[in-house]
Design goal:
The protein is globular. It has two domains: 140 residues, NAD(P)-binding Rossmann-like Domain (Rossmann fold); 166 residues, 2-Layer Sandwich (Dihydrodipicolinate Reductase, domain 2), CATH 3.30.360. It has 335 residues and is α/β, with parallel strands linked by helices. Helix 3 links the parallel strand 4 and strand 5. An eight-stranded mixed β-sheet has the order 8-9-10-7-11-12-13-14, covered by helices on one side. It has a six-stranded parallel β-sheet with strand order 3-2-1-4-5-6, sandwiched between helices. The two termini are 29 Å apart. The structure holds nicotinamide-adenine-dinucleotide (NAD).
């Protein structure tokens, strides 16, 4: 295909970070779209996108031949419809997380992505977060031996965010936000085979779903994990993550300039901890766009394809189900 990436960005709130990611890469912004004219024009002025390239209806650019890549950052409930429409038009699509909110929608996106001539990636941003990339590199290099326990938390106060589509019970906090922690754990430790969860509801009276959930999970007989999701927490946004291995431990998050690595000496005794400097960038849109561009232009594997995105949501759905039924649930990964 043409080596030039010509991009349409749909959804002009968080979606503005996709414009910045595309611009940092040197791609051309061929169109921007938001059904809210005010949001559209705000972004248009901010990024100097001419009026003729601003659209309030994405259908007007579905078959625009000047566009070969589309980023989708609209309410989660619309991910499937808009992504599938562009995939059917043969465009490469980078869609925000979570991939979708129901198993039916996950299946439909996978099928449409399989049939499309375009590539598809879901933006699980933790895979582009400097501290988590470093943690993954350390684990893969054997620096902490074999993982026996991994935990991650998604702590984000939604108090000011739940007067809209985020209050939809389908968009449970574990799926909408907790998918970050679940995806990070899956990326580093693999697929949990069973989950068990408790839900709490003390902080966000405006939503029907639990605003805090704790889930434990089993990977194999000797490896376990834990995810804590709080969408009403009284603290700054962060994702504290600890990875315990047989030869060391990593403590990191996405909002601190350092992470900690414990390793052992020849006798297996824990050494003084090392402090590793990392860039703070919890929304590394430039890296995310670059990864997708590399897949499109250079044939690299897509960082998080539709099946990967679906497996993460499947674990989230299993956690929600367990918290409601009080029973352990085995995620089904047969996508
Ligand atoms: N990766 C991350 O860390 C991260 C952070 C924030 C949001 N997100 C995701 O990004 C997406 C958008 O979130 P947000 O915070 O920007 O939400 P938002 O509600 O603030 O903004 C959504 C925008 O989409 C527009 N929109 C709605 N329907 C549309 C349609 N049919 N066509 C065109 N535009 C439409 C709205 O007018 C609005 O401007 C969500 O999927 C969310 O989960 C991801």
């Amino acid at each position: 295909m043409d080596k030039k990436l010509t991009v349409a960005n749909i959804g002009m709130k968080f979606g503005m970070s996709h414009i910045e990611g595309a611009m940092a890469y040197g791609a051309e912004i061929a169109a921007i779209c938001d059904c809210d004219k005010e949001a559209l024009d705000f972004a248009g002025e901010r990024y100097s996108v001419p009026e003729k390239k601003r659209f309030t209806d994405y259908k007007d650019i579905l078959n625009n031949k000047d566009i070969n890549l589309v980023t989708v950052a609209v309410p989660d409930q619309l991910h499937k419809k808009i992504s599938c429409d562009f995939l059917k038009a043969g465009k490469n699509v980078l869609c925000e997380k979570p991939l979708a909110l129901t198993r039916e929608d996950l299946d439909e996106i996978i099928k449409t992505a399989d049939e499309s001539s375009g590539k598809f990636m879901v933006g699980q941003i933790c895979r582009c977060t400097p501290a988590f990339e470093k943690a993954k590199e350390l684990v893969d290099s054997g620096a902490i031996g074999e993982i026996y326990f991994i935990e991650s938390e998604y702590a984000h106060d939604y108090m000011k965010l739940v007067d809209n589509w985020r209050s939809d019970p389908l968009r449970h906090g574990v799926i909408g936000g907790g998918c970050h922690a679940v995806d990070l754990i899956r990326w580093i430790a693999g697929d949990p085979q069973e989950v068990f969860a408790y839900g709490m509801h003390k902080l966000l009276p405006a939503v029907e779903y639990d605003d805090a959930t704790i889930a434990v999970m089993k990977f194999d007989e000797n490896t376990a994990g834990k995810v804590f999701v709080s969408t009403g927490c009284k603290r700054d946004y962060t994702m504290r993550t600890v990875i315990y291995g047989t030869k060391g431990t990593i403590i990191c998050d996405n909002t601190s300039p350092t992470m900690t690595l414990f390793t052992v000496d020849e006798e297996g005794v824990t050494k003084e901890p090392q402090t590793i400097d990392v860039t703070v960038n919890s929304h590394n849109a430039a890296k995310e766009f670059e990864a997708f561009a590399d897949a499109i232009l250079n044939g690299k594997p897509v960082l998080t394809d539709a099946r990967e995105g679906a497996k993460t949501v499947e674990v989230c759905l299993s956690i929600v189900e367990s918290s409601k039924t009080g029973k352990p649930v085995k995620p089904k990964y047969a996508f």
